[in-house]
Design a protein that fits this description.
Helix content is 35%, strand content 26%. It has 263 residues and is an alpha/beta fold. It has a domain of 172 residues: 3-Layer(aba) Sandwich (Rossmann fold), CATH 3.40.50.300. Helix 3 packs parallel to helix 5. 35% of the residues are buried.
Length: 263
């Protein structure tokens, strides 16, 4: 049994490089406990989505240093499918369309891989219908091809539907609010909170640019990622400070170019 003092998800001095070898993350440290919601904010190019993909085991990025631990186990070298089966979930910033595979069939296959059980289509449909109602989704979407013809808000709600059905231990939300108007954002945020209510031990890392999502999610901790490192951590007041001051206070000043020699 995992000791109570062991974090649910732990990122220790993580360094990650892009496919061309460029260093993107330069020593990220972060611990997510059970039933905690952490928000990660940062400017474009700071490494937020790289972190999300590296935590899920994307082969596009290379971990060049540090460790990722899940329930005390070192998972740094685990593949994405093994991490998913273990209970780590990633909601994509840009969910992909999959032609020929319905939402219902996709979830049936994913749930079978995640839990090793084979629910009947009727059992799964009933469960999906309940969550679709809670997420304000059209029930007919269960039989439509995954994300095909879905609006931005519908794609994001479908990601939350997957999170609800698959019952992960840790959920990483990569800019779930991206491209959403305020009404769609509130529906998605309420959906995340509904999942947390049903899964009180769920740890969540929500990556976002905007405070408006945090106003709906009420995170326990807020972190600012700048230039591949956590530059500051705090509570919701940190996000409010960021809204007023921007990222300038945490960014390293650029050295001025050498002065041209005088003639």
């Amino acid at each position: 049994m995992t000791p109570l003092s062991t974090p649910l998800f732990e990122i220790d001095d993580l360094h990650v490089a892009a496919p061309d070898g460029t260093a993107i993350l330069r020593g990220v440290d972060l611990c997510v406990g059970a039933d905690e919601l952490h928000a990660l904010m940062g400017p474009n190019g700071s490494g937020k989505s790289t972190l999300a993909n590296a935590l899920m085991g994307s082969p596009e990025y290379t971990i060049t240093g540090g460790r990722i631990r899940f329930r005390g186990d070192d998972i740094t070298d685990w593949s994405a499918d093994v991490r998913g089966k273990a209970g780590i979930f990633l909601a994509f910033q840009y969910p992909q369309e999959i032609q020929g595979v319905s939402v219902l069939n996709f979830l049936r296959q994913a749930l079978s891989a995640r839990k090793g059980i084979d629910l009947s289509m009727l059992e799964l449909r009933l469960s999906i219908m309940e969550w679709m109602e809670r997420l304000d989704m059209d029930p007919s979407f269960a039989d439509r091809y995954l994300n095909e013809g879905f609006s931005g808000g519908e794609k994001k709600r479908n990601e939350v539907l997957q999170m609800a059905i698959l019952e992960p231990e840790v959920a990483i939300l990569d800019e779930t609010d991206s491209g959403l108007d305020i009404d769609a954002l509130r529906v998605v945020a309420r959906g995340v909170q509904e999942v947390r209510k049903d899964r009180p031990g769920l740890g969540v890392l929500a990556i976002t640019h905007y405070q408006r999502l945090l106003d709906e999610l009420h995170p326990d901790h807020v972190h600012i990622l700048v230039d591949g490192r956590i530059a500051a951590s705090g509570g919701l007041e940190l996000a409010r400070q960021l809204e007023v001051e921007g990222y300038g206070a945490w960014q390293q000043p650029q050295s001025p170019p050498d002065a041209a020699p005088r003639p």
